[in-house]
Amino acid sequence: MSFLKRPNDFLFRTLVIVASVSLATLSLLVIYSVVMRYVFSDAPDFVEPIALLLVIVIAMFGAALKVREGGHIGLDSLVNKLPPRGQLVATAFQHGCLIVFAIALFFGCLQMVEATMEDRIPIIGLPESLRYCVPVIASVCIAMFSLENLLALFAQKQK
């Protein structure tokens, strides 16, 4: 189990830092945009595309972080009413579904990266594929975190 815990700890810390910096940057960018628009009547064009990229980073990395913490969407009220073995099966099924979702997200976004590689985001000129690279990274993290949780679940059952 430790073979996956150490790399996942590093990934988790990295995602926390990137998501936190992205959220702080987004906050500052929005404040800057509001001040420029309403105080100086000079709205900067570049704020919206950058803000969209930051929102994608925050949402996707935040989702991966919640998977690691076990805070993802689940039917806890139903699962808690099941007997212990049923809870184990439901939780294992949940993590299995998350892994399948992560794989689908990975390949879907990878196709979009390839399809939009030559396109540019208007105003800022960055490759359009950048929007799809973030979910590719997040899907790998979701799969690794779900696998870690699944292995921990079965290791706990063995005890």
TrEMBL record:
It comes from the Bacteria. Residues 27-154 form the Tripartite ATP-independent periplasmic transporters DctQ component domain. It is a multi-pass membrane protein. GO terms for cellular component: plasma membrane. One of its GO terms (biological process) is C4-dicarboxylate transport. Belongs to the TRAP transporter small permease family. The complex comprises the extracytoplasmic solute receptor protein and the two transmembrane proteins. Part of the tripartite ATP-independent periplasmic (TRAP) transport system. This is TRAP transporter small permease protein. The lineage of its organism: Bacteria, Pseudomonadati, Pseudomonadota, Betaproteobacteria, Burkholderiales.
